[in-house]
Structures are given as C-alpha cells and as structure tokens.
C-alpha cells in the first residue's frame, strides 16, 4: 500500500572446457595406436561432455542484471485532484487508522495516538500526513523514531531509513491540542466543532485532518477504529460496530470499528449528551442517537425510526446493504444545516426536521451507503455519482410512498432549470449545487428512459456490486451503462453531463 532490493549475487564463471578438450584430443592422437589408451581417452571425453564441457561454439550463460537501487524521494504533498490539488498526499496507500484518543469537554483538549498502517507506492524518503492545527509529539515508523515537522496543515514525516516501494509500514503519531474547524469560503465550515457538552467532527470535502493525522482524500480508503475516552456520563458516537465500553476513575472509553474501507471525510465523531438506542436490523447493529435537548417523540426521532424500512427499500433497488452496522445521529446545532452520509451511520442536522418528519433526507443519506460510501469517488469532479443517485433514490421513494412518480419529479426539476453548469464538471465551488443534485438525478432518469427499466434496474445493482469497497469515475460508470444497454451512450452523457444547453426530453 513490500518490495526488497536484492544485491547482485556473484555467480562462478562458466567452465570453459574447449582448451582442455583440445589438448586432450592431441594427446589421444599421439597414442592412437595403443587401443587401451584410446578407449581411456574416449571414456574421459565422454565424462567431460556429460559433466558439461562443450566445444568452441559454447556461449557463456548471461549474468542476470542487478535490480536497480531504490530511488528515494519524498511523497507528494497532495493527491493531485484537479479540484483540490493539496488534499490528500502521494507516495503511500493507507490500509487502516487506529485511534486511541482522550477528550476533555471542559477544556476542549484532545490528545492521544494514531496508528496508521500503509504501503509505499514509491521509494519514500519522507511523506506527508494531513493534520490541521494540532501538535505532533513523538512519531515512529516501524518502531523507530522518525523526525517530523509541521508545514501548514501538513505533518511531514522523515523515517530513520527510506521505505522501499511495495513495503508495508506502520506510523504511530502522538499528538494533542485544541482542534479547530476548517473553513472554505464557498463550501462552508467543516471539521471539529466544540459544543457546550462535547464536540463533533464531520464535513465535506474535508474534515478528518482536524482531529487525526490522515491521507485526507477519498481515493485512499482505509478501515477505521476509534477508542475515545471522555468523562463518565458523556456519550461518544462514531462509525461502524460498537465495541465494549469501560469506565474507570470517572472516565469512560467508547469503542467503534468500521471494518470496511472508508473515505476519510466519511469518518466522524459526536460527543455529548445523547439518548442512544441500540437495536439490530437485518442481523446488524442499529444505533440511533438523538440529543437530549430534543423530545423523545420529536420529528427527528420519528424520521430516524424509519431507518430500517428505508434500508430495506434501498436494498431492493441497489442490492445487499454494504456495511456491518446501520443507524443515524441527529445534531441539534444551528451550525449544521446539512446532513452527511458518514459511513454506516449518517449524521443529520435537526434543521431537516424542524417543521415535520422528513423521511426523504433519511432516504438520501442511506442511499449514499451504496452510492458514495461503498463506491466512493476517485476525484471530486465526479460527485454527481454520489448526489445524483441519492437524489434519484428520493424520487423513487416518493413514488413508493404514493406522493408522486419519478417522472413527475423529473418534470418538476426539468422545467425552468439553469443548464449553464455541467453536472460532470461543476467546478470546486459548485460541488453542492443544483447541477450536481437535481441535474444529476435528471441524468439518471434520462438514462433510465433511454435504456429501459430492465437494464436500468439491473445496473442499479451491478454497479455497486462491481465496485464495492472501492473507487470509481464517471468514465467507469459510462462504460458500465453501455454494457448494460448494449449500445453506445456517448451522446446521452455528453448532453446531460457536460452540455451547457437544455437537453431534449428523454
């Protein structure tokens, strides 16, 4: 995410038997009249040939060329995404993050260790980790002390010895500080936000670097485990399957584990006063948490109570639910006017439930578990693959609930739409605009009308199955759609994804 350079092994020079054989032949010729000597010579000659002697047409066995020595260089300080070139890092591939952290709500202080397992994708002399506004202390690579320095929101690590391409390695970072959020003028605030009774960390397109060292780009998915220690009586919610809790000296350690690879922005933590409901659904843990500030019968509670039913509906469309746990968390915080598909357990701002129950937002975020989480982005330009399908899942749910058909939802969106922003390349400042969500969903519906329901609904299942736990691009999806349709769809996708004029009704 171990290759070894082998030094040249010397080989003994091949036996050059021709000179000895020629001299032997002259001796045999000189005593040819003596039969017993001749027979002896013939026997000797035969033995030499069998032993590997050869005539003067023998060519030497080639000596294998030595492997080139490693060419160590620092990994890139960004993953090279055209929209966000400095997000993530190059030179390695992370397999897993294991966090052991302690948080004090009264002071806002966070500290602990992050253990990161990775594989070098080049000969590494140094590498970057994303770590924003926190201070790293001791850093080791494979148990040996490494040097580190902060460079803006990057932690640059130089191991004691170079890491050869293909070799796995383990980084342990001890760090601490008071986490701060990250802000983007166009995309808003994300990352760690402190609350009166705890904190939470989530956001898109970046957030993880505000609370742990990370390769913060969705192209590098990894497993994730968290052990978070807080004062007793404070709850901690995160991704995946809940583990055993332990309380000692007035502090409780909460454990969570996501065994399927996740994109870093899909990792989250919520700390505070919550009512935690732990049940099962489909044989998986179902954990739903609502803040104590909301009534137990709130619109949010009533909406999230349908998580199991929504999951079953989507599984009929998209195939088996892709993770080992399910659920949801509601935040009662005015700074969160969005919901996010945090893997295995979406997080919802209470603003979605302010006036009435809202199941469509639950549908949207759970649809992302297939489209966006299990099959993740390889680059941010292709975010329509997440949002277009999740929005279309809302349309299918509304049809299922008898409110309106998917065609009627399409007609509503199509009428009077601004087509100037291409869905397949909206630009970094319009990642969360209508061109991605509404036009993305219209693109999905246009595909359905073009290839027919049997091929379309088969594609809805085959796509997440084919790329499960991986990453994919728009080009990958177009190829899959053309296989499902059995025909070229270039004109369709050119018009609906990249054109800036109104496409004709499908």
Main attributes of the structure:
506 residues, alpha+beta, Immunoglobulin-like, Neutral Protease, domain 2, 3 domains, nine-stranded mixed β-sheet, five-stranded antiparallel β-sheet
Verbal overview:
By secondary structure, the chain is of the alpha+beta class. It folds into three domains: 18-50; 68-272, tricorn interacting facor f3 domain (Immunoglobulin-like), CATH 2.60.40; 375-498, Neutral Protease, domain 2, CATH 1.10.390. It is 27% helix and 29% strand. The protein has helices spanning 18-30, 35-50, 299-304, 307-318, 359-367, 384-400, 406-414, 434-451, 453-466, 474-485, 490-498; strands at 73-74, 92-104, 109-120, 124-130, 135-141, 144-145, 147-151, 154-158, 168-177, 181-184, 188-194, 199-202, 222-231, 235-238, 241-242, 246-248, 251-262, 269-272, 274-281, 284-291, 326-331, 339-340, 347-349, 375-377, 470-472. Strands 2, 3, 5, 6, 9, 13, 15, 16 and 17 form a nine-stranded mixed sheet that branches. A five-stranded antiparallel sheet has the order 10-11-12-18-14, with no helix packed on it. The longest helix is centred in the last third of the chain and has 18 residues, at 434-451. The radius of gyration is 31 Å and the shape is globular. Its cofactor is Zn(2+). This is Aminopeptidase N. Keywords: Hydrolase, Metal-binding, Metalloprotease, Protease, Zinc.
């Amino acid at each position: 995410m171990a290759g070894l350079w082998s030094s040249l092994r010397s080989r003994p020079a091949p036996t050059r038997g021709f000179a000895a054989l020629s001299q032997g032949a002259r001796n045999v010729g000189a005593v040819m009249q003596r039969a017993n000597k001749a027979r002896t010579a013939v026997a000797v000659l035969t033995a030499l040939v069998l032993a590997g002697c050869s005539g003067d047409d023998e060519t030497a066995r080639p000596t294998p060329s030595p492997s080139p020595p490693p060419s160590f260089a620092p990994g890139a300080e960004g993953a090279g995404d055209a929209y966000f070139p400095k997000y993530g890092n190059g030179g390695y591939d992370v397999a897993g993050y294991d966090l052991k952290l302690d948080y004090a709500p009264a002071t806002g202080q966070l500290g602990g260790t992050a253990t990161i397992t990775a594989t070098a994708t080049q000969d590494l002399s140094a590498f970057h980790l994303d770590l924003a506004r926190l201070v790293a202390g001791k850093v080791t690579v494979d148990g040996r002390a490494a040097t580190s320095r902060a460079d803006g929101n990057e932690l640059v690590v130089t191991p004691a010895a170079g890491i050869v391409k293909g070799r796995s390695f383990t980084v342990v970072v001890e760090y601490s500080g008071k986490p701060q959020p990250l802000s983007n003028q166009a995309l808003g605030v994300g990352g760690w936000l402190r609350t009166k009774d705890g904190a939470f960390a989530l956001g898109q397109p970046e957030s993880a670097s505000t609370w742990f060292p990370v390769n913060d780009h969705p192209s590098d998915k990894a497993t994730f485990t968290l052990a978070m220690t807080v004062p007793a009586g404070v709850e901690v919610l995160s991704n995946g399957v809940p583990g055993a809790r332990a309380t000692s000296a007035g502090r409780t350690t909460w454990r969570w584990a996501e065994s399927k690879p996740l994109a870093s922005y899909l990792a989250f933590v919520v700390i505070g006063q919550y009512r935690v409901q732990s049940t099962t659904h489909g044989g998986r843990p179902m954990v739903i948490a609502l803040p104590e500030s909301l009534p137990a019968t709130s619109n949010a509670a009533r909406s999230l109570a349908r998580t199991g039913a929504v999951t079953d509906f989507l599984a009929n469309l998209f195939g088996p639910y892709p993770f080992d746990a399910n659920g949801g968390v509601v935040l009662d915080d005015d700074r969160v006017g969005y919901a996010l598909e945090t893997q295995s357990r979406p997080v919802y701002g209470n603003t979605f439930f302010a006036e009435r129950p809202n199941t469509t937002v639950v549908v949207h975020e759970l649809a992302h578990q297939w489209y966006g989480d299990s099959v993740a982005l390889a680059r941010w330009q292709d975010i329509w693959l997440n949002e277009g399908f999740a929005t279309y899942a809302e349309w299918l749910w509304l049809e299922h609930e008898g409110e309106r058909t998917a065609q009627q939802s399409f007609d509503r969106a199509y009428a009077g739409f601004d087509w100037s922003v291409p869905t397949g390349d909206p630009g970094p400042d319009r990642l969360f605009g209508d061109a991605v969500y509404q036009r993305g969903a219209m693109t999905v519906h246009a595909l359905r009308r073009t290839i027919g329901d049997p091929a379309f609904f088969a594609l809805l299942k085959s796509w997440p199955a084919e790329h499960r736990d991986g990453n994919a691009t728009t080009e990958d999806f177009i190829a899959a759609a053309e296989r499902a349709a059995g025909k070229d769809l270039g004109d369709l996708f050119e018009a609906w994804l990249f054109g800036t004029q109104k496409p004709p009704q499908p």
